[in-house]
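Hey, I was hoping to borrow your eyes for a little while. I've been puzzling over a protein and I'd love to understand its fold better. The fold is given in discrete form, as structure tokens running alongside the sequence. I'd be grateful if you could look everything over and explain what you see. No rush at all, and the record is pasted right below.
>
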Amino acid sequence: MQPDIESPAVPGLVSVVTAAYNMGGYIAETLDSVLGQDYPHVESIVVDDGSTDDTQRVLERYAADPRVRVVRQANAGQTVAKNRGLREARGEFIAFCDADDTWRADKLSRQLPRFADPGVGVVYSDIECVDGQGRPLPYYDIPHHEGRVTAELLIDNFVPFPTAVARASVLRAAGGFDESLTMSIDYDLW
């Protein structure tokens, strides 16, 4: 049975949603970075959105790991896949790590203490973009805003999607991703 979007969250658990479509060349590195977090309470939910490459074969490597759940569906697009991951998530917190992104091992342990303030709904961080050989690429400095940031978000989406961790209750209250959109889905959600 698929967990309902309103199912109670497991306290302290971070559900990491990864939508994947034909990402067999990258998905292992992504999952290794998620599972390699120094924060121990992580579940990884991979939504394979109808891949036709070797994504499924690569994901089979993780079949024995109880922290990993793979959900397969017909190709429906990233918003549908991410919303499916939201419905599957059991954690108090939800993060997104797309199938071509990786995290530093201390990402979650550095961000989760910010949620000690019950008024905090989303925590984000800086990002480093790299080329195909892992060399850093030039990137602009991300503005850091705290508190009510709606006005600042109307000017610029300063929340790098793969860095965001959110309370599951906040994402669910917002209704998840607008499935009619194909671009700027995170900007719309924030």
